[in-house]
Amino acid sequence: MKFVDEYRDSALARDLARAILAEARPDRDYRLMEFCGGHTHAIFRYGVQDLMPENLRFVHGPGCPVCVLPMARIDQAIAMASQHGVTLCTYGDLMRVPASERQSLLKAKAAGADIRMVYSTQDALAIARAATQQQPAQQVVFFAIGFETTTPPTAVALKTARAEGLRNFSVFCNHVLTPPALRAILSDSADEVARIDGILGPSHVSTIIGSAAYEFVARDHGLPLVIAGFEPLDVMQSALMLVRQINQGRRDLQNQYSRAVSPEGNTKAQALMRDTLVPRERFEWRGLGWLPESALKIADAYADWDAEQRFPVAVTPGREHEGCECPKVLRGLMEPTDCKLFGRVCSPENPLGACMVSSEGACAAYWLHGRSRIPQRTASASAT
Amino acid sequence: MTNTKESPQTHFRSRLDIPNGQVDLSHGGGGRAMAQLIEDLFRHHLDNPLLRQGNDQALFGPVRGRLVMSTDGHVISPLFFHGGNIGSLAVHGTINDVAMAGARPLYLAAGFILEEGLPLADLERIVIAMAEASRAAGVPIVTGDTKVVERGKADGCFITTTGVGEVPEGIHISGELAAPGDAVLVSGSLGDHGIAILSRRENLGFGTDLQSDSAALHGLVADMIAAVPDIHCLRDPTRGGMAATLNELAAQSGVGMLIREAAIPLKPEVRGACELLGLDPLHIANEGKLIAICPAERAATLLAAMRAHPLGQESAIIGEVTQDPQRLIELETPFGGRRLLDWLSGEQLPRIC
Fold first, then answer.
1. Where is the PurM-like N-terminal domain (chain B) (predicted)?
2. Alpha carbon distance B264, B271 (integer Å)
3. What pTM was computed for the model?
């Protein structure tokens, strides 16, 4: 398959593995945080960790928009659907994410709420247009979630809705920004700070915001960062670039994913986002707490299409499971298998934390692809 | 489909308006409208001597071997897709479930749940596809039932098919018979059906000419057991795809498996669509493929027999059964690393980014 197979070539992978082995110094170890769930997925899907030297470990970061969405926002969405009777449209990943009181969008749908899985903002707009013909009173809310990658389509949806005068469509905006999250992890003021030697930076996000957005990592935090594509060879080549930087004592921003990422990013998409969305003063991240200017809300000019204004619901703190260690996993402080719930009561069939429910989450990746090599306690728990 | 003996001309002054008509509640009410639907549509297309008996059941003679029976409900959206429709699928699916015991399928029964408003022309296309599929397979539909539910209570048409078949003497094929060292084979490329269906869903804007692989596999199975009578396991990887089927067999037999990912046949269109949607082709449904497990020393013979059949030309040996108390399916990736191939958790959902 053109433009895919080239990045999954097994001979090239072995060459890269040999190069990393040759360059990794035996007298130290290398802890490389992959920011994105897409990287985590590639590492497990292709068994990349198996090809790395013993002293190179991938540390999983917070880069999965489902994992970092706080429970309270899911609660809010369910309340919009149940209290206001709106048709709530969202991406599939969100359907099974645990909400408070053992709820989820999937369970709310089964209980009668009109919740629909869509593949794009265009699907949600189409549902709203159809409703104007058949059920004029029916309101359609698009539950928008994601990092900068999925934000431009939401901006386009807002512009389209305004241009068409679509009054039965609105957006529940939960778009979050990656640089503030990375900054929060690296300047963690708590006692626990993840020990990281280098970072595999976001790829798809960077196609939008550009690689220059991460200059602060080297400048302010003294760490090398390589923008890394999601294909397995991208991940391996980026790991090699990081190992070289670390060995040479360099702290540079490098762009491995130069086939798609420029320093300035996609300026048209950025303009679309600026026109329709503005930074929130602060936003809660699962695992990272309340971070300033880390998320977007709908600009005043589009207030008529802002579901939070149109369908207000009481906001209460989400009730997370007490033993869930997702916050530590997201910050690179704990491996999924160190969580007491992992594999015992928390599995993809019964996820207690978002890192287990999202296909991009570190816990799900460990469980789905790697549990054969972890201690029997967790592996045998599949039968429980 | 409650059978009646006489020809439609005997009872009905005008023919059923198939081009313009719709299913309505009277078609399930047990009266004249229902009788006409059965005569003009079901019996007209599905006609065979046992159906013509006109009773509420089909009466047939004794069979030679052991009997197997299987039933399967078919709910699918959209009803029509590249390579078939719900009717042909309902015939193939049940024939395959019967055949996976190494059996020769003999008869089918079909139950229809129709939604008020379903165009009669659509229903006729479905019934014609069933008739063609059952004739091509040599497995007649000998009895059936029709119910109509109100608009909004079904997705156009649901079909349940039940099949019976006979297992030849000396054949014992079952999911609990996989043994460490056995070879694992697949009869062709995976995921074709699931991707063909997904591509027809209105809200997924990608086009492909990929056809569903929906097919009756009993002929392939007959050739396989003629070549290798001691096949241990056969199963068609439908819902949940190859991943679910291998995990089922591993659980039943108390074994593990090591599968070489590079050996699994996949069409470029399937790989491309899965890339686009963030899906794993090994979790995607198939309707015309089978997984076989046999003693390693018989694998080459079985592979040759499979490849000699039109429905098995792309067959491949994809791995082996291992001793593993945890009953895990491990995939050796093309990179030489390993990962687990697990059951799907819930429905396979596309990733956000």
1. 55-167
2. 12
3. 0.83
